[in-house]
Amino acid sequence: MIDVSSIVSQLMATEQQPLINLQNQQSSYQSQISAYGTVQSALISFQSAMSGLTDASQFQGMTATSSNTSALTASATSTVAPGSYSIGVTTLAQAQALVAGGETSQTAAIGGNGTTTLTFDLGTISGGSLTNGTYTGASFTSNGNGTKTVTINSTNNSLQGIAAAINAANVGVTASIINDGSATPYRLSLSSNSQGASNSVKISVAGDAALSSLLAYDPGNNSGQKLTQTTAAQNASFTVNGIAVSKSSNTVTDVVPGLTLNLLQTSVSPINLTIAQNTSATTTAVNTFVSAYNALHTAVSKVTAYNAATQTGAILQGDFAVNTVANQLRAMLNTPVSGAGSFTTLADIGVTFQTDGSLAVDQTKLGTAMSSNFNDIAALFDTVGQASDPQISFTSAASTAQPGNYAVNITQLATQGSLVGSSAAGTTTITAGVNDTLNVSVNGISTTATLAPGTYTAATLAAEVQTEINGSSALTAAGASVAVTQSGGIFTFTSNSYGSSSSVSITGNGASNLLGGAPVSTTGVDVAGTIGGYAATGSGQFLTAGVGNALGLKIQVNGGALGARGTINYSQGYAGTLSLWATAQDGTTGLISDASSGLQKSITSIGTQITAEQTRLTALQALYTSQYTALDQTLSSMNSTSQYLTTQLANLPKA
């Protein structure tokens, strides 16, 4: 008997060696792809870290420290110079609050079923005296932002209905109902939505007498105050370095450019506000940069290292793609930054390579660098442009822009589109359906504005027109608006934008009244000039280099004279450059991606070969089994014949 199974098994063990070689090769490629994945993951993390460091404010930030944070907090941008301010807070800004007389029900109808109009106006109460919430001898002056109306009828003439109608009308006042627990507990409470003395409320009631008795409020009329003032509108009053300041809000942004003051409570003694360079944030940003590089360096080292003790290399040791990426990265870090100011290399601020290839920070040297040239550290890391002319600012730059110092010459300043009346307004009285409609187009965006009926001065009518136009959702969505001014009754409409797309046009039944018969419309023009000696493309106030080394460099020209306007110094810092580089490496065309993609194709090809080899081996095993089974059967038959012949020979008669 032949052991067919054992023989076939031994034969197949030899035949399977090519298959095993293919499978081992495929496994090796998969391990390499996994190692490439580790490097790519590290590159993604590195790119994210670099991208997060491209905001110059992380390196140029300022801190604002208050000696009394219960009364004052503040924040500062990089435009604020280091120093200190002495601030005294006398009063806080507050909004006016009014309350109506009590009602027995908040759902019962008040007055008849006719239509009543509530007209809300905001302004300033001055003079007179205040006793128990009522003014005597005072006057009210509108702030010129126009009036708003609320309609009350049989569908909403309860306290609940009135409060809901006021809140829905967006009149600048918030209504609520308070239950004071008395016999007539339900009281309508009204509060101005805006703080400041110029936002006191005046309410005129035309229609139902009962509603007038409940809601009419004219602080300039001794007998016209049906509501009681519980909180007076007032401005915040404070001093900055001894200079008295009055503001309508407790959040103040326009006293010192770049400095925001948050007034929290009054102070008995002056508050010291210290503005200093945010060295802590800068140190954190530099350390983040170093940590991000070291994490990528570690990932690369693990897959390319050589173990001298075991004389074995990591799976990607000597790999062209990974070594090239690592060499590119190190070369970029060793390349000085052009146009970065007083610091041009990482070593200038104490960041150096160690013997193992990692980066380390000399905190003492970094501290010295921050003390000597704090703002220049940002230029070392970020994409930064600094203009010598204060009315020119760097906006952005494409990857095509080369670091350098570029001369700027302006041949035309951008202007705003405008519309100027040909004569003084015919009347400042607005009548519904007569002269209250304006069909307006601002920068090509059309809308309709309806003016509130009433009698205005030229100044207050200009304010009402501006409010109604700029309240358009279409204009707001497009970022368009107008400034409306008047001089001697002649109205001027000016677009908020600059350039050839900036324009204003007005028609409608109120147009001729405001503008006369032949208003003058002027379309804006774009800024024009050169950057680096080459003609640049203007769009509004923005000028973009179209050729030369500055290609893609974009600046904003806010005004000034024509002619030579100094220079723009542009630098591409390490974080900005490395962010772009890491993004390219992580993309579908990067070296690592290409290498991984190539291996994946090889794996697919090997998979096809493995399938074919497995098919061949299956057929070969079947053939071997068949052949050796047949041989076994032949040998078995021959053995039977041999035994038969032996028996027969043995039985033959002996001679």
Can you walk through the features of this model?
- This protein has 655 residues and is α+β, with helices and mostly antiparallel strands.
- The protein contains 14 helices and 39 strands.
- Strands 23-39-25-35-36-37-38-24 form an 8-stranded antiparallel β-sheet.
- Strand 6 (129-131) and strand 7 form a beta hairpin.
- Helix 2 runs antiparallel to helix 6 (279-304), helix 2 runs antiparallel to helix 13 (574-586) and helix 2 packs antiparallel against helix 14 (591-650).
- The radius of gyration is 42 Å and the shape is elongated.
- The two termini are 36 Å apart.
- The mean pLDDT is 90.
Q: Which terms summarize this structure?
A:
655 residues; eight-stranded antiparallel β-sheet; five-stranded antiparallel β-sheet
Secondary structure topology:
Layout lengths: L3 H12 L1 H36 L4 H4 L1 E5 L5 E5 L6 E9 L5 E3 L16 E11 L2 E3 L2 E3 L2 E4 L5 E5 L6 H11 L3 E7 L6 E7 L7 E7 L2 H7 L12 E4 L4 E5 L2 E5 L3 E2 L6 E5 L7 E7 L1 H26 L1 E2 L4 E2 L6 H14 L17 E3 L5 E3 L1 H11 L2 H6 L1 E5 L4 E6 L6 E9 L3 E5 L8 E2 L6 E6 L2 E6 L3 E2 L2 H13 L2 H6 L3 E6 L2 E9 L5 E4 L3 H5 L4 E3 L5 E4 L2 E6 L2 E4 L7 E5 L5 E10 L1 H13 L4 H60 L5
Antiparallel strand pairs: 1-18, 2-17, 3-14, 3-18, 4-11, 4-13, 5-8, 5-9, 5-12, 6-7, 10-11, 14-15, 16-17, 19-20, 21-22, 23-39, 24-38, 25-35, 25-39, 26-32, 26-34, 27-30, 28-29, 28-33, 31-32, 35-36, 36-37, 37-38
Helix pairs in contact: 1-14, 2-6, 2-13, 2-14, 7-14
